[in-house]
Design brief:
CATH topology of the largest domain: Quinone Oxidoreductase, Chain A, domain 1
Helix content: 25-40%
Strand content: 25-35%
Keywords: Metal-binding, Oxidoreductase, Zinc
Largest sheet: 9 strands, mixed
Structural class: alpha/beta
GO molecular function, one term: oxidoreductase activity
Oligomer: single chain
CATH architecture of the largest domain: Alpha-Beta Complex
Protein name: Alcohol dehydrogenase catalytic domain-containing protein
Order of helices and strands: EEEEHEEEHEEEHHEHEHEHEHEHEHEHEE
Pfam families: ADH_N (PF08240), ADH_zinc_N (PF00107)
Number of strands: 19
InterPro entries: ADH-like_C (IPR013149), ADH-like_N (IPR013154), ADH_Zn_CS (IPR002328), GroES-like_sf (IPR011032), NAD(P)-bd_dom_sf (IPR036291), Zn_alcohol_dh (IPR050129)
Length: 374
């Protein structure tokens, strides 16, 4: 292993997930870089909807009670799967030229050899796992991650804070790529939150016209700044009529449902025309009844979308973040210190009063700070 002149300490400060609404700030063993991995001094970490799900409803993905079949992790875990950092060490088989670089990481761990990996669907890898989901992640001072899950961003001029946005951007890229080329299409997007805002930007950058629906005026204003063609404010009273009015005269045959809310999915299924493609992005928390006869007779296509393909989606995402460098504070205006993760991020998010589209955490910060631009 190659290490910089700054030796890695034996322990580090980290947020440790023990179970439902139980995150503790503890001193834990510092990680090391395994074969094919980089060891990072953590820069910035994004707080994701799945982090909220684990905190409020879990453990769901975190292997706290049952060992993960591929990572072997069992017990309390350090979350954090959207992150950036500085490479301070490399594992066996990795060039020491990585040392000192600033990287964005998507944290995807896949074998590269199974059928899905060989056909370019590494998110469906038979042994897939995620850093910060199924093994210790970045909500600590150091984190190890596969070199294939990292892209150096020094020459792109991205700050650590901006680089931490590349993983959620890659999720949005994958959601859109599930339907192929969207250039010239008009798309209805329901939900302008943690992924929806990135979707509005991705759709616009890839040549689509995004009509964005949400119940929050502030989120819709951000979607407009990110390029939304039109926005629709709904309040639950007569949403279908409002959306139908907003798309009148437009040839909308592609729908992205990013809320995971059952009535919203019902609305999308009801208003979508013959031949529509519907991408179910937001995760439903209970089984949903669907009229398959109508789906068949109207030739609608319902598409699932999960995670990201690190070899394809992540490079596109890094490029898209770099195109807007210096202007991402509208999405992530503040960065929290580690000990404010629960009080200022997860609890407000669980109560529907998140302070921003994306909340960032700097594990080494002593106090709240403004996000930095490249």
């Amino acid at each position: 292993m190659t290490i910089t002149t700054d030796a890695v300490p034996d322990t580090m400060r980290a947020a440790v997930y023990h179970g439902n609404r139980d995150i503790r700030f503890e001193t834990v063993p510092a990680p090391s870089a395994g074969p094919g991995e980089l060891l990072l001094r953590t820069g910035t970490v994004g707080v994701c909807g799945s982090d909220l799900g684990e905190f409020a409803h879990g453990p769901l993905q975190h292997p706290v009670e049952v060992a993960h079949p591929h990572t072997g992790h069992l017990g309390p875990i350090v979350p954090g799967h959207e992150f950036s950092g500085t490479v301070i060490a490399v594992g066996d088989g990795v060039s020491d030229e990585w040392v000192g670089k600033t990287v964005a990481s998507c944290g995807s761990v896949c074998c590269g050899e199974c059928g899905p990996c060989r056909r370019g669907e590494s998110n469906l890898c038979t042994t897939y796992s995620g850093v910060g989901l199924h093994r210790n992640g970045a909500l600590g001072e150091y984190v190890s991650t596969p070199v294939e899950a990292c892209i150096a961003v020094d020459e792109l001029g991205l700050s650590m804070d901006e680089a931490a946005l590349c993983q959620p951007m890659a999720i949005a890229v994958h959601n859109v790529r599930r339907v192929g080329d969207v250039n010239g299409e008009t798309v209805l997007l329901t939900g302008a939150g943690g992924i929806g805002a990135f979707l509005a930007y991705v759709l616009t950058q890839l040549g689509a016209k995004a009509i964005v629906v949400d119940r929050d005026e502030r989120r819709l204003a951000i979607a407009e700044e990110l390029g939304a063609y039109r926005t629709v404010l709904v309040d639950g009273a007569d949403d279908r009529a409002r959306i139908r009015q907003a798309v009148e005269g437009e040839d909308v045959r592609l729908f992205l449902e990013a809320t995971g809310v059952r009535p919203v999915l019902d609305t999308v299924l009801a208003i979508s025309p013959k031949g529509a493609r519907i991408v179910a992005i937001g995760i439903q928390h209970a089984p949903v009844e669907i009229d398959l006869a109508a789906l068949t007779l109207m030739e609608k296509t319902l598409i699932g979308s999960n995670a990201l393909v690190r070899e394809v989606d992540f490079p596109i995402a890094v490029d898209l973040v770099a195109r807007r460098r210096g202007r991402w504070s509208i999405v992530a205006p503040r960065v929290l210190p580690l000990d404010r993760l629960v009080s200022d991020a997860l609890v407000p998010m669980s109560e529907g009063r998140a302070s921003a589209i994306k909340i960032l955490v700097d594990p080494s910060a002593a106090e709240i700070r403004d996000s930095e631009t490249g």
